[in-house]
Design a protein that fits this description.
By secondary structure, this protein is mostly beta strands. The chain has one domain. It contains one helix and 14 strands, in the order ββββαββββββββββ. The strands form four sheets. Strands 1, 2, 3, 4, 5, 10, 11 and 14 form an eight-stranded antiparallel beta sheet that branches. Strands 6-9 form a two-stranded antiparallel sheet. Strand 1 (20-33) and strand 2 form a beta hairpin.
Amino acid sequence: MAILGTTSAINVQSNLGHAQYDSFQANFVRKFSNGFQYTFAYTFSKTINWWAGSIPQPQYWALNKAVASSNVPHLFNATFSYALPFGSGKPLLQHGVLSRIAGGWQVNGFLNIRSGLPFTVTSSSASLNAGTGTNQQADQVKANVATLGGIGSSAAYFDVTAFAPVTAVRFGTAGFNSLYGPGAANLDASVFREFRFRERMNLQFRAEALNATNTPHFSNPAANVSNLQLNSDGSVKNLNGFGVITSTTRTGRQYDEREIRLSVHFAF
């Protein structure tokens, strides 16, 4: 049917919602003293917007309201820097060969621990007859969805039997971004060694390790319930990828695996 004389898609720009961010934030700081400093910071937050889903139909727009896809409820950061108390001008080993070996060292670290990111359990949108660009949520058939924690193609991360495909002309009952994926913990660490030649001239060697513990950080699981196959008794016959985690994600850098960097800094 032609609308306004055209049968092509019509894009509408309108103020259809807003984002809301609420948080509790706390931090504890020890300023640099006696060669040592550290900080601790914790944030508990929730972000809600009207773009978590993908239902462009105006009459159903309210269904898009949910926690944002970038929402991280819990975030903890800790940093420390410690200049070891050895060498000339320090409390210990001020003279001799050991002073030259042990002096000038500094260790540093940055620890980040966070909750996982939210995701939506989806279903095939074939029954909606709503056109392209419209996502379909699954039906949630259990009041509570257990997190099983499985990793790999043969183990589900959550209880996959808590959801069912939608085959009627309606939207599913599961909300957008109703589940959370695995959290992540990452430690970056470094060791510095300073060689002083003159009062205003020194050479610093740096060894830095990003993801020092080489800990994997897993992505959210695949979440299309239409891939699931069940036996007649309701037990799982074949996951077909539904509910499983098969990849890792980066934590704000190019690579997720441990990355070691060596460098030399000359200051004068």
